[in-house]
Structures are given as C-alpha cells and as structure tokens.
C-alpha cells in the first residue's frame, strides 16, 4: 500500500530531493567562507562582527536547517520506495556514510557559529579555509556513488 504510493511519487520525490540537496549544499559551501572573513576581517566585536553574525544565523536557520531536513525526508522516502535501494551493492553504504558525515559537518558549523557569536572562537581563518573542502569531497563521494551505483 505505502510502497505503491511511494513508487507512484518516485520522480517527484527525487526531484524534491535534488532541489533540497542543492539548497543545502549552497549553504554548506558558503557558511565556512563567511567564517573565514568573519575571523580575518571582523574580529569578535563591533559593527562588522554584528553584520557577519546576522548573515550566519539567517543562512543557517532560514536556508540550511530546512534544506537539510527536507533532504533527509525526501531521501528516506526514496530509501523506502520499493526497488530503489539494493543493499547488497556498495553504493548505498558509501552514500550513507557520506550523508552522515555531511550532517556532522552541518552540526560542526552550527557549533562554530555559536562560538563566533559569543566572541569565543579560537580557530584561525586557515582552519575554516581547510574545512571548506570537506563538503566538496563528500559531495563527490555521494553523487558518484548514487549516480554511477558501483
Ligand atoms: C541526507 C540523506 C540522504 C538520503 C537518505 C538519500 C537517499 C537517496 C536515494 C535513496 C536516492 C534514489 C536513488 C535512485 O533513484 O536510484 C537518492 C538520489 C539522489 N541523491 Fe540522495 N540521499 C541523501 C542525501 C543526498 C546528498 C547530501 C546528496 C548530494 C550531495 C544527494 C544526491 C542525490 C542525487 C544527485 C540523486 C539522484 C541520483 C539519480 O537520479 O541517479 N543525496 N538519494
């Protein structure tokens, strides 16, 4: 019964999944960049600091959090759509590991945002430049595993 409904919705669910993924990835690429400039140019008080903290909280709460939740909801609807995921192959496990790591990175950014807001950040801009590569590497693992399906 529910399987038939999910099967009928499959192309719509996948389209909504990809739209949510694009919105989430946009934030995962941009927020670390804001942190780099916040640390290197604005410091932990003053008007520029206030502007960066406002941009960071809006990006996280208004775009990234809803997009991550939508990515998971539509992604899990796809997981439970009959015939879509063959757990005896490698790709669902590789992709699963990739999306759990991406969700951890989202959470890590949330913790750093609170530190920057409180003026208690101890990490240099260089750390955020390096961490900015994490979503790129995870995206490559996730997209190649789900499209090529090795
Ligand atoms: C957050 C948890 C996620 C779950 C549970 C999930 C699950 C799935 C499933 C089951 C499919 C259907 C595969 C098929 O139709 O053959 C799918 C499709 C897809 N997913 Fe995800 N996904 C998640 C996150 C992501 C992320 C973070 C990305 C990109 C960075 C991504 C990119 C894609 C793409 C591009 C497709 C379409 C693949 C195709 O049409 O061949 N997904 N996802």
Description of the structure:
With 150 residues, this protein is mainly α. 83% of the residues lie in helices and 0% in strands. It contains five helices and no strands. The chain has helices spanning 2-42, 47-79, 91-118, 125-131, 134-148. α1 runs parallel beside α3 (91-118). The structure holds protoporphyrin IX containing FE.
Shape: elongated
Provide the number of structural domains. Answer: 1
Low-pLDDT runs of 5+ residues are none
User: What is the rounded Rg?
Assistant: 18 Å
H/E series: HHHHH
Instruction: State which percent range the strand residues make up.
Output: under 5%
Write down the overall mean pLDDT.
97
Helix content: over 70%
Please give the alpha-carbon distance between the first and last residues: 30 Å
Structural class: mainly alpha
Number of helices: 5
Main pleated-sheet profile? none
Number of strands: 0
Which molecules are bound besides the chains? protoporphyrin IX containing FE
Q: Which characteristics define this entry?
A:
150 residues; mainly alpha; 5 helices; binds protoporphyrin IX containing FE
